[in-house]
Write a structure and sequence with these properties.
By secondary structure, the chain is mainly α. It contains 7 helices and no strands.
């Protein structure tokens, strides 16, 4: 579940999500922004949300591609360096990701890396054994990924809704 009140990227991030500028390190980003209406830091936070929030519509795109797309198309800056904002990204992820979600993201990123690696290999006498071994290992990896995904479903089915209140009988589908 996202911590954002909205994914309306046309709105000012801080006005839509005022609680997020209350504590460091986000407070430092917010307070250090001298642009009109804190628009520069707002745009950076929207970019972080678009890339790193599991509820982002772009989240299923591999991470490196996602960063490039958001930098190019949303920020209009091909040279934008997300690493420069690592402190804010890590804090944002702490706010938005449960341990199971963090684990799932690591698995997804590693599977993306493995796919890229496999795509770069030519199938020949020298690589055949390695490729087959990597492909066979996918069965175990996807079984573990399924287990992690089931943990996420359990977290989502815990009966807690946004704001921390308990689901009503109708929300649980019992009525």
């Amino acid at each position: 579940m996202s911590i954002l009140n909205s994914f309306n990227i046309k709105a000012n991030f801080w006005q839509v999500n005022p609680q997020l500028c209350a504590v460091d390190p986000l407070a430092t980003l917010y307070n250090g922004d001298k642009s009109k209406d804190k628009s520069d830091s707002s745009k950076i936070m929207w970019a972080i949300a678009l890339v790193f929030d599991i509820e982002s519509k772009y989240f299923n795109i591999p991470l490196d591609d996602r960063k490039k797309i958001i930098a190019r198309d949303y920020l209009k800056n091909d040279k934008f360096d997300f690493n420069k904002y690592k402190e804010y990204i890590e804090f944002y992820e702490k706010l938005t990701l449960t341990p199971a979600r963090r684990h799932l993201i690591i698995w997804n990123n590693k599977l993306d890396e493995k796919t890229t690696f496999l795509e770069g290999l030519q199938y020949n006498e020298q690589t055949a054994e390695l490729i087959e071994k990597l492909l066979i290992s996918n069965t175990k990896l996807y079984a573990e990924l399924e287990r992690i995904s089931e943990e996420l479903v359990k977290e989502g089915d815990s009966g807690i809704v946004k704001g921390g209140s308990e689901e009503s009988i109708s929300e649980k589908g019992e009525m």
